[in-house]
Design a protein that fits this description.
Blueprint lengths: L2 E3 H8 L3 H10 L5 E2 L5 E4 H8 L4 H4 L4 H51 L22 H7 L28 H10 L3
Length: 183
């Protein structure tokens, strides 16, 4: 019987090469190494394990039918990608809007805390045209004193206990200490 490589048999039977290699590894298919150092399998061995090869796997399908199927698959893929792109653009718009809202909240919080930067960079401009540069007078107009709660100033107490550490001594030092100190 003729001997075939794993790739040839996988194509002939219409199965994956990995499944043939797995069966070779677990010992259900015997193989030999040819002169080109390739694993080859006797055709009768494949017939014993997999039966007769599929005649459809060996024959070529109609190329026009294959092309139409491929074109349809590409069209579906393009439509899916367009949909994914529109979803991503919408998500991006929402995220930018949320970022702008968070920037406004940060501005309001900095005003409520009374923080104004010492030096404003000349090249830094507001992101939107309707945004105003706020000052402490704006803060007084928007924040009422009843809204602000004072923070209590309590001293921080730190307590530490010092644990005396004994000096490590060698054998001779301990013996001398035992002889001269009677504790």
């Amino acid at each position: 019987m003729p001997k075939f490589t794993v790739a040839e048999l996988a194509k002939k039977y219409g199965i994956a090469r990995t499944s043939i290699y797995d069966r070779m590894k677990n010992g259900s298919i015997s193989y030999e190494i040819d002169a080109k150092n390739r694993k080859v399998i006797d055709f009768s061995e494949m017939q014993r394990v997999y039966g007769t090869p599929n005649s459809q796997a060996d024959s070529k399908p109609d190329s026009k039918e294959n092309d139409n199927t491929t074109v349809e698959l590409y069209k579906q893929l393009i439509e899916e990608l367009r949909h994914d792109k529109s979803v991503a653009e919408e998500r991006e718009r929402r995220m930018y809007k949320e970022i702008e809202q968070l920037k406004d909240k940060i501005d309001n919080l900095t005003l409520a805390l009374g923080y104004t930067p010492k030096n404003i960079q000349p090249d830094s401009e507001p992101d939107s045209t309707n945004e105003q540069v706020r000052t402490t007078t704006d803060l007084q107009e928007t924040v009422q004193p009843s809204q602000v709660t004072p923070i209590e100033d309590k001293p921080i107490q730190q307590t530490t206990t010092a644990v005396p550490q004994h000096k490590k001594r060698g054998l001779f030092g301990r013996v001398l200490n035992a002889v001269f100190d009677h504790d």
